[in-house]
Amino acid sequence: MPQRSDYDLVLIGGGIMSATLAVILKHLKPDLKLVVLERLPKIAEESSNAWNNAGTGHAALCELNYMPDSSDGSIPSATKAIAINQQFQESREFWANLVQSGVMKSPETFIHSIPHMTFVQGSKDVDYLKRRFEALKDQPLFAGMEFSDDPDQIAKWVPLMLESRSEQTIAATRIDQGTDVDYGAVTRQLFDWLVLSGVEVLSSHEVSKVRRSNNGWTISGKHGSEKFVISSPKVFVGAGGWALKLLQNSGIKEISGFGTFPVSGHFLKTENPELVAKHQAKVYSQAAVGAPPMSVPHLDTRIIEGKSSLLFGPFAGLNLKFLKHGSILDLPKSLRFANLLPYISVALTNFPLVVYLIKEIAKSPKQKIESLREFVPKANPEDWQLYEAGQRAQVIRPKGLSGSLQFGTEVISSADGSIAGLLGASPGASVAVRVMLDVISKIYPEQFHAWQQDIKKLVPSFGVDLNDDAKLASASLSRTAATLKLKA
Length: 488
Ligand SMILES: Cc1cc2nc3c(=O)[nH]c(=O)nc-3n(C[C@H](O)[C@H](O)[C@H](O)COP(=O)(O)OP(=O)(O)OC[C@H]3O[C@@H](n4cnc5c(N)ncnc54)[C@H](O)[C@@H]3O)c2cc1C
Fold this sequence. Notes:
This protein is of the alpha+beta class. The protein is 34% helix and 25% strand. The protein has a domain at 9-58 and 182-275 and 290-468: FAD/NAD(P)-binding domain, CATH 3.50.50. It contains 16 helices and 20 strands. α1 (16-28) crosses α6 (183-196), α1 crosses α13 (432-443) and α2 (79-100) crosses α16 (470-484). The chain starts with 8 loop residues before the first strand and ends with a helix. Bound molecules: flavin-adenine dinucleotide.
């Protein structure tokens, strides 16, 4: 294949991050020439696929890990929870805008209102949840949150969870503005529009090399048995778990010392309509000792392609692949002199996590049903099937000579702004808009300032602390709820 060099930006990976970045850029500068390279035959088949993630619109409404308990029994800090909520609100604003302009289809094809709840048992956690509620109930972005420690009230909210429950020291919070999102549908709709807007989306194109050239970067790989070579002044590496190896391949010094810690996820699923009717919520609880924040157990209503189901999990597992369709050589091949100590130190300093993962891997199907029974005491194994979701690749960040395991996302970019990539997987798809705006600020630093007004047309609350202004927060919530047909 002859070398193509007529692009302004090459995006590697056909997931929600590349899709979001390309749509924002095409709105800011419609004449940009973009090409997306995806190794699989279809886009949105890795983490962004609806069945490979849990579809939670992470807004910190129910996830305790964004608001850990204080050490002295005081009201825990809401700072992180408010920040996550604002970032999800920016995604809502972006999608609402795209629905209005016809870029995205009717909202029922990708987002639904599902109450977000936190459920805890035992007096210690009931006390913590009460204090968490105290910290959040008057925050404008959390308006409408309710708390109850009355089993009868909780049974009205989530009947399936209260049937035959012996423990009565329980409590829950509930908030109606929670959502279930089909991130696969979001990704496909964004790509449909990109193709109509002249963006080339090349599937079955696997990038193997990203190398500096005179004018920027040379990106090469294989399309079936044929080789392809593309050159471009700028590159975005949105390759999910494989971003690490492509960034390492690029040779930029900013990736030195980074590693990735893969955790696989399995869920139990039921489509039994009787059970689905008795549970209309996403209910998150406390994590087991040593469990990473993304492995917090939850029982969720999912709505995918118009069909409702319940899922419970995740059950974490340890394998060496960085993508679901990756290779067991992913982790060994990512080892470099510079990240060896970070990898070793993470293994040594996260002993409870290692023990947790070993316990999870060793869980028999019967033990998985026992875990489910903490949520659904009467669960019948015949109703539930185990399935494999996506692979999470968590970031190992260099810290001096050692390393630390991060549970957020990390944008890595070269000093000259010609290449950027994304590591990490949480809060994930929910905050794609904010993370991609961050990428734009790195790869188009000068234009980013000039584009501020246009960015605010797409995401009106970008750069504004919504939670500091009750009127603005309420206006953004109700405006997006009206367009996306959600409960305000
Ligand atoms: C079990 C699980 C549960 C989750 N739950 C949630 C949730 O409830 N809410 C939430 O917001 N987020 C959740 N996430 C995180 C979320 O799914 C991810 O953050 C998000 O989908 C990542 O999007 P992406 O575009 O970066 O990656 P991906 O969707 O993984 O896309 C990367 C693409 O790059 C392609 N690619 C890779 N290497 C190459 C190459 N060399 N050449 C060409 N193409 C390549 C891949 O095939 C893939 O299509 C969850 C993730 C998992 C695994």
